[in-house]
Amino acid sequence: MQFLDDYQRIVAEAIDKYTFKDKPAELYEPMNYIISHGGKRLRPIMVLMANDMFDGELEKALKPALAIEFFHNFTLIHDDIMDEAPLRRGKPTIHTLHGVNVGILSGDALLFKAYKFFEDLEPNLFKACMRVFNHTGLLLSEGQQYDINFETKGDVTFNDYIRMITYKTGILSASSFEIGALIAGANFTDAKAIFNFGKHVGIAFQIMDDYLDVFGQQESFGKMHAGDIVENKKTVLYLLAKEHATEEERKELEFWYSKKTDNLDKIYSVEKIFRRTKVDEKALLLIQKHNEIAQHYLNKINVPDEKKKPFIELANYLLRRDS
Amino acid sequence: MQFLDDYQRIVAEAIDKYTFKDKPAELYEPMNYIISHGGKRLRPIMVLMANDMFDGELEKALKPALAIEFFHNFTLIHDDIMDEAPLRRGKPTIHTLHGVNVGILSGDALLFKAYKFFEDLEPNLFKACMRVFNHTGLLLSEGQQYDINFETKGDVTFNDYIRMITYKTGILSASSFEIGALIAGANFTDAKAIFNFGKHVGIAFQIMDDYLDVFGQQESFGKMHAGDIVENKKTVLYLLAKEHATEEERKELEFWYSKKTDNLDKIYSVEKIFRRTKVDEKALLLIQKHNEIAQHYLNKINVPDEKKKPFIELANYLLRRDS
């Protein structure tokens, strides 16, 4: 999409401009390393999109947009340590290259840099953004802890799951939009509406992620087929299946999810229950539901329809990856 | 000291009052655990002292004072992981009890809570405090990284060392005082003066810590004698000794600091060089120098002498522990 490319170029240039030159290099080079590897940088783009929606100045939103990207990378550095992930965006993770200590510390420092990047805003706006930012950080930590808890918790419910993905994925998109809107001077109602748009697109995106793991086209998605089943992850598919399974199927699901194996029998058996309980359809309906809620909030915002088009395109882009 | 006891009671009551009741418990209980174990809680007390110096309201300074304590404990949780420390204030560290992941995450969440505890301040003051707080966080991260670097860096200089302890110890005391002063409405000059008072007391305190490791009375100090020598720590004593040693002594020092052992020969030999180069006297002179700089800044502050008394008593208390 052209507008995404344009925003991506703006963000990339800003990241280049603000490359950390601070010392000690042992602390700052890992920070530059992870930020320079990019990814799609959707969150800073969300800040800029919302800022444009309400006719804000690019200059004013640019450093806060980077702050969101720094924040996101702070969470990635720490999450990668927790998940013992060797790779991120195809490159070795920071703790793999430099050890856990540098991972913890450069993550912390990146978070402080993120906070500092709001300091050009005038006090009222600064405080409004900081409230959103602090709240986001706390909910993200809580979401990550819920996710960790789920690994050993037997009785995860569908509501537990929705809260977890809301905290882990929905809130940061939501806050990115809200901060962009606040910086542009949007009123409280509109800022909350674009927050809720982002939240529900984020939730829908995460459900799509779970869906595609099993029902996506492997080639275009670029991840191992059914990796979540292998890892016994309590995804939306698993939780919906448990809910709608027969007693016998539920026992079979629990049996397979007590073993960590990429045995094809396991994948085949679990997928069979998934199809039998129609969780593929149910997941798609959920995605549609959250997309509709997102659109509902978008509709309520008091700007010309033309201004909303990129948001609809972004949601479509995020939710139709290859399905 | 009576006034310290009084402040300690106020802080303890506030900590009780604001015990985290949030969920998930797996995230918040470790935070309550480390905070409830206390320690002397000097940093929140510094906030309250500076607030009182400029006739601020206790109610207004209390949550920011707790924020400083939360921040301090966030650094302790992460530092303990990095140092693989089994104990903190005589109790098992969080990562020892709950694993490194919970340590990283509850540290992060505690930092976000610290930020949130400033949110009751009006926007101008909020922003002024956040600038101090963000800067402090960044310098502390840098100081911790310098400290880690020193373990493997051969040519650590005296100036490197002073910067490291300034960032690791001086800045947080300094900022605690400054934030207390800002909340009370002190002007910029006075707030900077009390910042600098705290910075130099902090530096002097850290040098005293190095001094007492070798020259303190073991019983009252409560730490292993010469633990820094055993650990090959590049303390002020080591750096001054290297500077003032003969070529032969310097080689001997480097020889011993290439071995990690509690061999008494090592401790005896190193201490002999320390005494020969008179680093004990030099360290005491440095402590005196930084204490004098601190007093110089205190003198400049435009409040009645009576208001300065607790600050002088605090500095004396910190710097004369058992020497």
Q: Which consecutive residue ranges of chain A, at least 5 long each, have pLDDT under 50?
A: none
Instruction: Report the β-strand fraction of chain A as a percent range.
Output: under 5%
Biggest interface in this structure? Answer: A-B, 39 and 38 residues
User: How far is it from the N-terminal to the C-terminal residue of chain A, by CA?
Assistant: 18 Å
Keywords (chains A, B): Magnesium, Metal-binding, Transferase
Protein name (chains A, B): Polyprenyl synthetase
Family (chains A, B): Belongs to the FPP/GGPP synthase family.
Cofactor (chains A, B): Mg(2+)
Written overview of the protein:
2 copies of one chain form a homodimer. With 323 residues, chain A is mainly α. Chain A is built from 16 helices and 2 strands. Chain A has helices at 2-17, 25-36, 42-53, 58-82, 94-98, 100-116, 123-152, 158-183, 188-215, 218-221, 227-230, 236-244, 247-256, 264-276, 279-300, 305-319, and strands at residues 87-88, 91-92. In chain A, strands 1-2 form a two-stranded antiparallel ribbon. In chain A, a hairpin with a 2-residue loop joins strand 1 and strand 2 (91-92). In chain A, helix 2 (25-36) crosses helix 6 (100-116) and helix 7 (123-152) packs antiparallel against helix 8 (158-183). The longest helix of chain A is centred in the middle third of the chain and has 30 residues, at 123-152. The radius of gyration of chain A is 20 Å and the shape is globular. The two termini of chain A are 18 Å apart. The A-B interface holds A 22-24, 26-27, 78, 81-82, 100-102, 104-105, 108-109, 111-113, 115-116, 119, 123-124, 126-127, 130-131, 133-135, 137-138, 141-142, 144-146, 148-149 and B 22-24, 26-27, 78, 81-82, 100-102, 104-105, 108-109, 111-113, 115-116, 119, 123-124, 126-127, 130-131, 134-135, 137-138, 141-142, 144-146, 148-149.
